[in-house]
Specification:
Strand order of the largest sheet: 1-3-5-4
Order of helices and strands: HHEEHEHEEHHEEEHHHHHHHHE
Helix content: 40-55%
Shape: globular
Radius of gyration: 22 Å
Number of strands: 9
Distance between the termini: 29 Å
Largest sheet: 4 strands, mixed
Number of helices: 14
Oligomer: single chain
């Protein structure tokens, strides 16, 4: 079959994106209705954002956007589990899902449509040897999955083992390892000033209280990840309108704070740094105290259901590079010191990254994100 032309690829991306958009338009009101209740005034604390929705076969941890889609089926059908499989994965293990209705998740990817040469560095002659970079356009498609409760048949032992695995709470030493990695990989400067914690877009700098002001390292890590998430909205990175126009109206501010909170929680969940309910309550109180003019009703009065879905997507786009940089940092440290304190989840990511780097067949495939090669992945 002949390769698709750039025009055909653009048409394909456009068609697939439209199908996903139509799907979300149909589902978003229903999804939001399930998280819009009085118990969860702070939307980012709803269980859908902290519960690990996973693919049982691959270990893939579904991102926030797909967690929102899957919680609809998990809550309404009362499956009692947040693990899913594709039909093919289930059939491969001798399981059957005959007569069961599938649930859709979204897979987002880039479609290469051409190449562009790097700009020549100032002062250098154009010798025609500039490297060519692939140009990608964003695309998305729907993928069908089934909750494991929809399958009949005996689960294989490897599935049972994964279901029964209880990850121990990170030790102080393991938590410190993550904290230092975030400090070392954050894209901005950090300035310590007593008074408040905030990000300054104009100066591209994060301002935080000294460490001894925080109740614990976990409180400080959560705050740091919140501010780092804001910093990824800078025009030189994700270029979020909500950050640029933060001070112009409440809707932009509400949206930006939701993105930062969701992103921070996503990183915490993905790196398996447990936050107990009491600490979560303290963190929320600290957030409200720090943002003295913050009104919880902003999210309800200014953000529509579609905005919450979009915020989840933007939070995923923010959390992914944070996770990637942290795991890359820890991979290098682990190579130098195999005794580095790492919780089991991160250690598996690191070992998977090292394993992928050692495979010759991957040499020409470009850099690989460690969390894409680990049993703890994001889709």
């Amino acid at each position: 079959m002949a390769a698709l032309t750039a025009k055909q690829k653009k048409e394909y991306a456009g068609d697939s994106n439209q199908k996903v958009s139509d799907f979300l338009t149909e589902r978003v009101e229903k999804i939001f209705a399930k998280i819009d209740d009085g118990e969860y005034k702070n939307i980012w604390n709803h269980p859908v954002f902290s519960m690990p929705y996973k693919n049982l076969a691959s270990g893939t941890m579904y991102n926030l956007e797909n967690s929102l889609l899957l919680q609809d089926s998990a809550f309404e059908k009362d499956y009692g589990t947040s693990y899913y499989l594709t039909a093919k994965q289930g059939f491969a293990e001798g399981l059957s899902n005959k007569g069961e209705k599938s649930h859709c998740i979204i897979k987002r990817f880039g479609v290469p449509v051409g190449y562009a040469k790097d700009q020549q560095e100032q002062g250098l002659e154009n010798n025609g040897e500039a490297k060519a970079k692939a140009i990608y356009i964003p695309a998305a498609k729907l993928t069908a999955v089934f909750n494991i409760a929809q399958f009949t048949g005996e689960l294989p032992e490897k599935f049972k083992s994964r279901l029964n695995t209880q990850t121990p709470k990170a030790t102080p030493e393991e938590l410190e390892t993550v904290y230092q990695a975030v400090l070392e990989t954050m894209p901005t400067r950090l300035v310590r000033v007593i008074g408040s914690n905030h990000y300054r877009p104009a100066a591209d700098v994060i301002v935080m209280n000294p460490s001894n002001v925080f109740k614990s390292r976990l409180h400080e890590l959560n705050t740091l990840l919140h501010e780092v998430s804001h910093s990824y909205g800078h025009e030189s990175r994700k270029n979020r309108i909500s950050l640029r126009d933060y001070g112009k109206d409440d809707k932009h501010r509400a949206y930006e704070e939701l993105v930062a909170n969701l992103s921070a929680q996503s990183v915490i969940k993905h790196l398996d740094v447990t936050i107990d309910p009491h600490t979560r309550e303290e963190l929320d109180k600290g957030f409200m105290d720090n943002h003295t003019v913050y009104d919880v009703s902003w999210a309800r009065n200014n953000l529509k259901p579609a905005d919450v879905m979009k915020a989840a997507h933007d939070a995923d786009r923010t959390a992914n590079p944070i996770i990637y940089e942290v795991v890359t940092n820890l991979t290098a440290k682990y190579k130098a010191n195999p005794e580095l304190p790492l919780n089991p989840t991160i250690k598996e990511m690191v070992i998977a990254r090292i394993s992928s780097e050692s495979k010759p067949e991957l040499e020409n495939e470009g850099p690989k994100k460690p969390y894409k090669k680990s049993n703890y992945k994001r889709t």
